[in-house]
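Review session, final week

We close the course with one last complete record, chosen because it touches almost every idea we covered. It is alcohol dehydrogenase, a protein from Vigna radiata var. radiata with 376 residues. Go through it on your own first, then we will talk.
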Amino acid sequence: MAPSTPQVITCKAAVAWGAGEPLVMEEVEVSPPQPMEIRIKVVSTSLCRSDLSAWEFHAIFPRIFGHEASGIVESVGLGVTEFKEGDHVLTVFIGECMTCRQCTSGKSNICQVLGLERRGLMHSDQKTRFSVKGKPVYHYCAVSSFSEYTVIHSGCAVKISPHAPLEKICLLSCGVAAGLGAAWNVADVSKGSTVVIFGLGTVGLSVAQAAKLRGASRIIGVDNNPQKCENAKAFGVTEVVDPNSCEEPIAQVIKRITDGGADFSFECVGDTDMITTALQSCCDGWGLTVTLGVPKAKPEMSAHYGLLLTGRTLKGSLFGGWKPKSDLPSLVEKYVNKEIQIDDYITHNLPFDDINKAFNLMKEGKCLRCVIHMPR
């Protein structure tokens, strides 16, 4: 018997109607997947700081946020052969078409076909798959996981082992994977090196975990949130510095306590001024700064040319350099085999109806990751 044609699904979603306004639980209509798309039932989704920043400052509304998610394939569109109903998947905010120049280069994970989607529409036809009472609702980061069901391009999903706990590994959709990859793939942190991390949220602490696993001798965390500083050592940070308690610029502090600067520095805040500080905190000759944060404002950065002339390097990192389909399954297996840690980043587990509480906790700096569990 031929499979039935997918129909419109009506379900619950947390819709943002305006910047900074509380999300509203709405009955939304979710269209069937179009060619090369899949519709998934979201099982667990976590709140990332980029969701918060976009909610506070971006102008595309109404919108369904959320991009760190795990789920189960409910239906597939025409042409999809990689997935079938019932498959367990992670969603990803950048896809992998596996055929474009970037995907085949072996040098990049910035797919030319399924790269960052900023307009809130589907890659394939520049339309939305959500509506409320006939009014279109925009997507976010090609995922929109704050909905019981969502439609994504099949290139923005990764099939994973059914043995991996969906309520944990959703963190590998963005934050934890981004931090691990920044240290391993982008910086290639070496044994015995000194590392400084600006920002001790989930991403920064994932950098710390990765640096520890590589054998870094000193991992210095910089943050002005005392609660985050207190918890950082559990993730591999060997010492913490609070800029508010320093009488000299933080870059000078780092250079003084590291005998001229760190081997590696990571900017995980999303502040372009902090990128300059991170560069200044690196040593001459081989110091490497990696920037991971997404700035809320002031996207332009400036730095004295002498910082680079003396041998420092500045690199950007998107999703830790991981190619989603090629690399994420093995990262999931590392978690299943207890080679990497995810559980300790989850500070709160909340039902879907409490999603606004998750936003408030992140705004107040009282959480790392809030995992939001959808109704079964």
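Two points worth writing down before the exam:
Residues 76 and 238 are 47 Å apart (CA to CA).
Residues 179-317 form a domain with the Rossmann fold fold (CATH 3.40.50.720).
Good luck, everyone.
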